[in-house]
Amino acid sequence: MAKKPGQTQSGTSIQHVKQQNQQASAGQAGQQQYGAEFASETDAQQVKARNAKSAQNKQQASAGQAAQQQQQYGAEFASETDAQQVKARNAKSAQNKQQQ
């Protein structure tokens, strides 16, 4: 098979390959530029600090909700329990045990 000018021995167009290589390297340069641009606009320390503060706020909120629920339960339990009545029943129960 005879080699044509501007082609490889297998018949590939040399000019076409060069164009593809140029386009590929232009695309890589664009990606590198985007990465550098993104990195320059992002303050990693600031992001870490905000994430830590957010986590701390979530923990405090969870603890506050748990405390509030316990207080609510305590108030609810206290409002349904007559302490004098409980003492009287305990005294009567103790007296019944002594008589037996």
TrEMBL record:
Give the record's family classification: Belongs to the gamma-type SASP family.
- In Swiss-Prot or TrEMBL terms, this protein is called Small, acid-soluble spore protein gamma-type
NCBIfam families, alphabetically? SASP_gamma
Q: What are the start and end residues of every segment in region (Disordered)?
A: 1-100
Keyword presence, Transferase: no
Comp. bias (Polar residues): 1-18
| Biological process, per Gene Ontology | sporulation resulting in formation of a cellular spore
Q: Which organism is it from?
A: Guptibacillus hwajinpoensis
Q: Which domain of life is it from?
A: Bacteria
Q: Provide ranges: composition bias, Low complexity.
A: 19-36, 52-75
What are the entry keywords?
Answer: Repeat, Sporulation
